[in-house]
Amino acid sequence: MSPKAIYWTVGGVLAVLLIVMVTAWDYNRDNDAAVAKAERLISAYQANGLSTPLDADQVAAVLGEDGGTVCATAGSKAALGQLKTQIGIGGEFYVRPILLKENVFEGLRLIVQVYCPDNLSTVQDFIAEQRYAQ
Fold it and tell me: What whole-number distance in Å separates Cα of residue 73 and Cα of residue 90?
């Protein structure tokens, strides 16, 4: 078999696999369970006096059922450390600190409380170490 035929065969197999992957992937993150969690989050935001600019379907599309990247970050001390660096000094190579208002961290705590309560103590420790804007 010539090298050209091998390249075409491998390319064809990869193209078929790519088409199968794209058609089989479930992009619908906002199912009924995700919308229910989003409604719980929105009611928790409102109970704590935070604004909720998104409706439940939009929140469900972003966070899904599992909290998405928020819970992935909240479950990793390394990711929280990187977040602390970004907040504390404005990024890895920037020297101006970023001071956020307390309600930003309260929003983070509420998301973790609703979507991944197992990580709540880690996030509360992270929040306790932060400085807030006046």
Answer: 18
How many CB atoms within 10 Å of residue 70?
A: 19
**pLDDT tens string 61-70:** 888 888 888 8
Cβ neighbours of 13 (radius 10 Å): 10
> What are the residue ranges spanned by the domains of the chain?
28-128
For residue 115, pLDDT beyond 80:
yes
Instruction: Tell me the two tokens of residue 60.
Output: 């469900």
User: Closest by alpha carbon to 74, among 115, 46, 35?
Assistant: 115
Give the DSSP H/E element, type plus range, for residue 36: helix 32-47
**CB-CB contact of 124 with 92 (8 Å):** no
